[in-house]
Amino acid sequence: MLEKLDSRAHNTVVWIYKDIERSSIVNDICVGYLNITKSPELKHLQLDRETLDEETKNRILFEILCFASFLTSDIILKYVTTRKFLKKTVDEEAALLFNKNVKQRLNEICNTLGLCKIYDFGVISIDPEIKVGPTELLNPNVRLIEYAKVASQDRGKVLTIFSKNTAKFLALENYPLFEPLTASYAKPIYEIANRAMKGVFGY
Q1: Which structural domain, as residue segments, surrounds residue 166?
Q2: What share of the chain in percent tops pLDDT 70?
Q3: How many domains, the chain?
Q4: Among 15, 25, 43, 161, which is most exposed with the fewest C-beta within 10 angstroms?
C-alpha cells in the first residue's frame, strides 16, 4: 500500500484542482458576493462592484485548494485501515505518508498556478491605529498548519477558518458580512475532496 500512496496523493490534489475548475465554485462565490453588495442595507459601505479582479479570484482558488486538500487528511483514514483479530485499525504511518505527499503536490500546483506570488491579507499594524492590507505571500504550508492547529483543538472550527479567510479575500474590512456566504460552500468543497479520493482509490 505504502508504495502507491505517493502517486495517489499527487493524483488526489490534481483531481481536486480539476474538479474546482469544472464546478465554477470560485465564480459562484464571487457572484454571490457581488449580489450581496448590491443590497440597499450595504449601500453605505460602498462595496458595490461590477466584477472581481483575477487576483481576488486566485486568492479564493488558493483557499479552496488548501481547504479541500486538508479535508483529505480525514477522508484518508477510511482508506488506510488494517484488520487484526477481526478489528479494523488505522495505519497511522500510511495516513501520515499520504498527508505528506498531498502537501508536496499542493505546493507544486500552487506554485505552478502562480498563487504563491500573491499576497495574503490581514492586520499590518496596530499602532497608532489598526491597519489592514497585504501581509505575506500565500503559502500552502502555512495554511495547512493553520487548519491542522485549529483541528487539533476543535475540528468543528476548521470551517470557521475557511469561511473567515475566504471572506477576507472578498472584503477585508467587512469580512464578517460575507462569512455566511463563504461558509455555505464548505459542503460542496468536502464533496470535491471526497470525489477525488473515491476516484483515486477506486471506491
Answers
A1: 2-201
A2: 98
A3: 1
A4: 43
What are the tens digits of pLDDT across the range 39-82?
888 777 777 677 899 999 999 999 999 999 999 999 999 999 88
Cβ(140)–Cβ(106) below 8 Å: yes
Rounded Cα gap, residues 180 and 169, in angstroms:
14
Is pLDDT above 90 for 156?
no
Sign of the C-alpha dihedral computed for residues 114, 136, 27 and 201 taken in this order: positive
Tell me how far apart the alpha carbons of residues 87 and 131 are, in angstroms, rounded to a whole number: 55
CB 33 within 8 Å of CB 170 = yes
Cα-Cα-Cα-Cα dihedral of 11, 12, 17, 22, to 10°? 100
The residues, any chain, with a CB within 8 Å of residue 195's CB and separated by 6 or more, are 15, 19
* Other CB atoms within 10 Å distance of the CB of residue 42: 15
Quote the DSSP letter at residue 175: G
What amino acid is encoded at 104 in this protein?
Answer: Q
Q: Is the pTM of this model over 0.90?
A: yes
The closest of 116, 119, 75 to 99, measured between CA atoms, is 75
Closest C-alpha to 146, from 165, 133, 168, 123: 165
